[in-house]
Amino acid sequence: MQAHGGVLTEWDKLCIWKLIGLSSLTTLLECAIYHPLWVLKTRQQLDKSLTVSHTKQTFALMHTLVREEGITRGLYRGFWPGTLGTIPPYSAYLVVYQFTKYSLARDPCPTFIQSTSPLIAGIIAEIIALGMYVPVDVVVQRMQLTHNVGKSALVVGRQVLHEEGLRGLFRGAFIAAQSYMLASATWWLVYEHTKCQSYRFYDRWFAQRQSRANDHDDVDASAPHGNVPRLLHPDIAHRQFRLRAASWRELRRP
Q1: Consecutive H or E run containing 4
Q2: For 34, which of 81, 115, 147, 232 is 20 to 30 Å away at the CA?
Q3: 23 and 94 in contact (C-beta within 8 Å)?
Q4: What is the per-residue burial (b if ≥16 Cβ within 10 Å, else e) of 94-106?
């Protein structure tokens, strides 16, 4: 790994297909855990057919959905359209972020751009991902409402286009972009610089440890055997023990 402007760059060693595969798997697991909570939040905020007690008590709403619609149709309504629609934007987000950060953190760019490359890369990646994700989010949220029970994602999407046009699929995109871009830029900037500093701290600590170990080696080699107490680092003692054990096994061989 190379550090430019305090930022580690790994694009030249990155396996794109492995990144996409792992991100798809983590997205699937995340949606499997988070989707019921998303359904409950959407129903509480948007479903006008709910009573006041349901909007105030999350567990009461969850019990009602499970009793009336079952776990799959109640708590996991729109799971597969939402999950399959989330995987491509998230994979594109990670790939665009890594490539943009690598391109901006290199020597032709000014030092300020190199230092803030995670912030810029996070914003660019978020814009591209939101363009793919917002229509999926709108359709899946509409599927979770009571009056759309039993309708497929394709039917709900056509209904939105027919009633509201293309703007309906991107409703809330501007506000989402503002909040997500700020969060993404802040997260990546703090994360990358913290990671770089932790690598530097570990390198200094490891170098100091190796230096102390070499000093112990020098003291032990210069001391007369049996006359001066041996100053051994645990790693050196373990290495010498293995060497003596190997020598003993060689002597025992016929």
Answers
A1: strand 2-4
A2: 147
A3: yes
A4: bbbbbbbbbebbb
**Beta carbons of 151 and 160 less than 8 angstroms apart:** no
Whole-angstrom distance, CA of residue 114 vs CA of residue 93:
20
Residue 10 has φ and ψ, to the nearest 5°, of -130, 15
The β-bridge partners of 2 are: 9
Query: Which amino acid, 129?
Result: A
Q: Which two tokens stand for residue 104?
A: 């901006």
| pTM of structure | 0.69
Q: Quickly count: other Cβ atoms within 10 Å of residue 62's Cβ.
A: 19
Residues 154 and 13: their CA atoms lie apart, in Å, by: 40
- What is the 3 state secondary structure string of 177-190? HHHHHHHHHHHHHH
Encoded amino acid at 138, one letter: V
Residue 6 — left, alpha, or beta (φ > 0 → left; ψ -120 to 50 → alpha)? left
Going by their DSSP bridges, the two strands 7-9 and 2-4 should be labelled as: antiparallel
Backbone angles phi, psi at 233, to 5 degrees: -75, 145
Instruction: Determine what percent of the chain falls in helix, strand and coil, rounding each to the nearest 5.
Output: 80, 0, 20
- Using DSSP's 3-state secondary structure scheme, residue 3 falls into strand
